[in-house]
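Sharing a chain and its predicted structure for anyone who wants a worked example. Both blocks are below, sequence first, tokens second.
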Amino acid sequence: MRFLIISHALHKQLGNSLYAYAPYVREMNLWLNHVDEVEVIAPEFKHSITNLEMAYTREDIIFNTIPSIAFTSVIKSLNSIIKIPVILISIFKACRKADHIHLRCPGNIALLGCLIQIFFPKKTKTAKYAGNWDPNSKQPLSYRFQKLILSNTFLSKNIKVLVYGAWKNQSKNIKAFFTASFSEDDVVTPLKRDYNNEIRFVFIGSLVKGKNPLLAIKIVEAIQENKKAVLELYGDGILKDELQQYIADNNLEATIHLKGSQTKEVIQEVLKTSHFLILPSKSEGWPKAVAEAMFFGVIPIATKISCVPFMLDYGKRGILIEPNIDTAVESIKDQLKNKNNLETMSKFASRWSHNYTLEAFEKEIVKLLNQ
């Protein structure tokens, strides 16, 4: 089988190895275990490799480079419009050679791929929609257009569209899917937490506005007025200096700790002993940090966005909050009063997450490739 990946992810070449954003590559490596030939059509970025990137395990990948496109300014939009015909031709030629077409959505390149795949109704296809599939969410026009094409069974034939969460009134080609981080070998009985003494909160993610780390800090700041609590934030981003300043201005150095980016192994050890993960994001696709926290019995506290309510079983496996300091704090304080319920919630969270291992994920991939 010749497997074609159409992606907007920036790729880098170093010798015979091809690199891209690590979580994406880690997932794609599982797909590539079960195909004969691989072609990747994506933009190339000629910079040094960072610790956020990793190489595909295969070194026989055909890398078909295309220009990147963006519409964030008038000049960029004009340049992108000029590039589009060349990109469309490249995608069309690659699709013609492929046995299976795999789209990585949403994104500008994926949108072009969505259009081209219409002309190949007999080829088997998959589209991984890594964004928010919630039909009622506010999204950019290009995202809505991709969702419209992918869910239209007249335009998109012989395709499975993999989305996060189970949504009502979807076309038959839409399949609820997931992403895995841990192996069956990592499954352990979570440590029983003590919710009577100091409560340990953890935030894992980029320090950017979309992840709302300042709200996480303010929530724990309010909680620790009545309950001994600490918050550790793992991740880096453009808000780091602003957060450090807020911590200093409000004398929170003993309560709030910025830990920076850490390895998967460090995060794993942190999750084994933390009580709550707090992620008051404004938008998510599959919130990896939430699923990983649940794996170790950490109770997630998250906003009601995307597939989060589905993951948390609408409050049975975690605490759903509004992105408002007062109501969020009130919801958390109410839960802290019921220790038995917290223990049950932790148990339900880990049991659910243990179903989504790398092995289970790979089995589902094989089914899709053999459709």
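Comments welcome. The chain has a mean pLDDT of 95.
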